[in-house]
Write a structure and sequence with these properties.
It contains 10 helices and 8 strands. The protein is of the alpha/beta class. It has a single domain, classed as 3-Layer(aba) Sandwich (Rossmann fold). A 6-stranded mixed beta sheet has the order 3-2-1-4-6-5, with helices on both faces. Strand 1, helix 3 and strand 2 form a beta-alpha-beta unit. Helix 7 packs across helix 9 and helix 7 packs across helix 10. The N and C termini lie far apart (about 75 Å). The relative contact order is 0.15.
């Protein structure tokens, strides 16, 4: 498919599913503002590639004056995945700067059988450092609505806490740096539809570690949500909205700025 048609499909053919929801998140959560310099992080997967094209279209057509850098970290891909990454960047005409690291190797050594969490943290640290080096004040990641929903359920069911994936947050250990998720309202099924329409063969996980022992936790959560949708069609949106409707008067405990609070504090004045 010609590049002009690929880019037109984002704003025209998939306007309702992609472009409008992208703009909604950018405006509602003030993700990209005048004078920003955004580092668009690209892993080579469908989500990050679409994020890059959405940000690129906004940069071309928006009245908001901001700058963009497209950065791609190779955490230790094998040759097949590295070649596919470069092919996709060329196909979508994304002028990304690729830099190498040994994140896969290090995370496997120091985290044993559960390297995914450590790998994600290390990758984010590398991205923040590169973004800062390039003079950026924001890093855009490709997480979508389903990622946020699944993360919420994973925390409730596996960790026994209520935490969600926020559309933006301050970077830890990097002053004046924000992480933003402009695809927060976009559904994964629509990302997949766009990917297939434009003929994109994106990387999946591409991890050289989890090829040996893949964690199925998120897949289990996906399957659980699909089962729930048979009885509760709007269950995904309800889970997403729940993070905006937490009633602290009706919970046993909560944490603010690292300090824990208990509902028993209500009764302290009586003693």
């Amino acid at each position: 498919m010609e590049l002009v048609e690929i880019e037109r499909s984002i704003i025209k053919k998939y306007r309702k599913e992609l472009w409008s929801k992208f703009i909604k998140a950018v405006k509602k959560y003030e993700l990209i503002n005048e004078g920003d310099k955004v580092a668009c992080a690209i892993s080579g997967g469908k989500d990050s590639l679409l994020t890059a094209k959405l940000v690129e279209e906004l940069h071309k057509h928006s009245n908001v004056n901001f700058e963009v850098e497209y950065i791609c970290m190779d955490p230790g891909y094998d040759k097949e995945n590295r070649d596919l990454l470069e092919k996709n960047l060329k196909y979508l005409n994304i002028p990304a700067k690729i830099f190498d690291s040994d994140v896969f190797e290090i995370s496997e050594k120091i985290s044993g059988d559960y390297p995914c969490y450590m790998c994600a943290r290390m990758r984010r640290g590398f991205l923040y450092a590169k973004a800062k080096e390039l003079g950026c004040n924001k890093v855009a990641l490709g997480h979508h609505m389903n990622d946020a929903i699944e993360t919420t359920l994973m925390n409730v069911l596996y960790a026994g806490n209520y935490k969600t994936m926020k559309p933006k947050l301050l970077a830890q250990n990097f002053d004046d740096m924000e992480l933003i998720r402009p695809m927060y309202f976009i559904e994964e099924k629509d990302v997949i539809a766009w990917r297939d329409y434009v003929g994109l063969s994106a990387l999946n996980c591409a991890c050289t570690v989890t090829k040996k022992s893949e964690s199925y936790t998120r897949k289990k959560i996906k399957n659980l949500i699909e089962d729930l949708k048979e009885e509760i069609p709007n269950v995904e949106k309800s889970i997403l909205r729940s993070a905006e409707n937490v009633n602290c008067d009706m919970v046993l405990g909560y944490k603010i700025n690292g300090k824990e609070h208990s509902f028993m504090e209500e009764f302290e004045k009586w003693f």
